[in-house]
Amino acid sequence: MKKDSVIKILFVEASVEDAEQIISLLRNGGIAVRPARATNPEEIQAALDELVPDIVLYDPAPAKLPLRDVAQQLEAHGRDLSLVVLVAQVDNQTVADLFNTGVRGIAIRSQPRQMMTVLQREHEALQTRRQVRLLEAALRESERRADALLDSSTDPIAFVHDGMHVRANKAYLETFGYDDFDDLLCLPVLDLISSADAEPFKNLLRSHARNEKAAAHIDLQARRSDGSNFQATVEFAHATFEGEPCLQIVFRRQQIDPQLIQQLHRDPVTGLYNRARTLESIDDAVTAAAKGTKGQSLLLIEPDNWQSLLDSVGMGKADELMAAFANRVSAGVGDDDVAGLLSEHTIGVILRNRNDESVKQWISDLQERIASEIFDLGSQSIAVSASVGGSLLGEKNANAELLLNQAGQALRNALSQGGGKVELHDPAAREKADAERDRYWLQLLQHALANNGFVLYHQHTISLQDAEGEYSEILLRMNGPQGEVLPGFFMPIAEKHGLTTSIDRWVLAKAIETLRARDGQGIKTTFFVKLTADSIQDGTLLAWLGEQLRRAGLKNGQIVLEMTESKVVTLLRPAQEFVTGWKKLGGRFALEQFGSGLNSFQLLNHVDADYLKIDRSYMAQLPQHPENQKKIAEICHHARELKRFTVAEWVEDASSTSLLFACGVDFVQGNFLQEPQRLVD
Fold first, then answer.
1. CA-CA-CA-CA torsion sign (545, 546, 550, 555)
2. What is the C-alpha to C-alpha distance for residues 377 and 397, in angstroms, rounded to an integer?
3. Residue 438 in 3-state DSSP?
4. SS3 letters for 49-84?
5. Model confidence over 583-612: pLDDT tens digits?
6. Is the pTM of this model over 0.90?
7. Do 481 and 418 touch, CB atoms closer than 8 A?
8. Cβ distance 25 to 112 under 8 Å?
């Protein structure tokens, strides 16, 4: 599931506390949730109309709303969604009864992982059903257009099933001298081929019908209805007609030079297939995998430190260098394999008929072939190494976009680990690979903490209400072997190994040092600094912060510590105690992802937050979603009554900024307003 995918869940008869626990469980697993709660049929109907849920999570414990009534109401609503029942335990009879009622999934209250898996599975299944309907509609439209295009084409085109004509266009009839398709219906296509070419044509037709490897075209003498012949090139392509597999056959009187076609498919610098042709080959491989073909994989190959290589040899030698690199790659490509250029210096290779070990051996041989020989570029000689990222291809990931994303992520991971590295995406070996990556990132983290290897950026938070001074969000990066690394890569590892408190203290110390320097320059500044769950529970952090603030002589409120609403809900007692102590030191506190819970404002009764950072899910395509504008306006109105400031993050366009101002938002932040910049003392 995509990390930024939002699951809309309607909780029916579940207590607020139970619902918040499930919401926190999903968010801690990296899944965004838009919740609502209903306790009667009227509230269910309102939620169905306003929230438009993906999943309805029914809790039978209170038993105020019978499950059958809820299922009937959902069925009457007419929208495709998943009904999931939350139970304490299951038995065969219970499962049978629930599924007979229309339930799609059963989640066990005492098994959080099972519950999250069921909700994820049901959401993915729902998305698949919706996508299938869209694809079916698109297919019908494509077939309609293709049929119209077929009739308007000047090329003679026919569809053949078991050697018999089942469809032909007007140009086909005119070419062979027939007035009506009824004259061709069920006529063997072999009758339109001269006797001298009948046998090779029949053999080729049979090979294509059996999905065997065969030539895509053949030159022959075609025969008209009057017995006259003409020279033609016949092209074959697999197709469907009225849901049945068949062959599309095109008779072309003139053949474009095959060498010219090959030249158009090639990259002029490397001689490999160009990007368009390579993507076509990936689509072909994916189609074959969907039909059960095994032993395929996609590899992405790049020279290490490409920019440094260009600096060494000069831009004038870039093409020569890439051509030499491509020659080393293509030297190991077999007859059934495909190699092509996907970007300026990224080569994609599709390997076929190789098991996992053979793929790994091919990569090893390639890297040795590249690294062991010197690259001669005129008067210069250099050594080059290569990093490889790829993905094995099977039925489960038989999707071109998914396959490219998996291979691309694997290549980025390989490049981030230094030169000459390999990462191969393999679901069967995911746990082992994850453990290896964990060890690698842990070493990088420990090195960064010991050697001041982190970097701070800041992004301006702009006041729409003319607040005095500058406001900025502090953003963390880590220096890696291939450049700066985003926290999404290393913070999960830091949390797993108990390093987040040390990282938080490093960030806070640097932020305080920068604020002290700005105060000396007369620049009034406020920093928003993220805090992790471990730091909230660190009993020594407040004393340390108080000492740091005393030494720096900062004014009250210059540091706003922030934490996500879902994390605070799960750590309510320690969060309450920490915020109370932090306020005594003159600090301020912000709740991120505010408005994502069932009753977010109720949380303010326990945790005294000064700033409410509205959940980013409300910002996506804000001008096109009036319901989100209404929700933001309600949050701002309520916040103003409670004398809290509101902040809208992830603002990406001018229209959204204007709408947020009209809603009463106090601060806005996003790349549209300012890209993150490196923090300078």
1. positive
2. 40
3. helix
4. HHCCCCEEEECCCCCCCCHHHHHHHHHHHCCCCEEE
5. 999 999 999 989 877 778 888 988 999 999
6. no
7. yes
8. yes
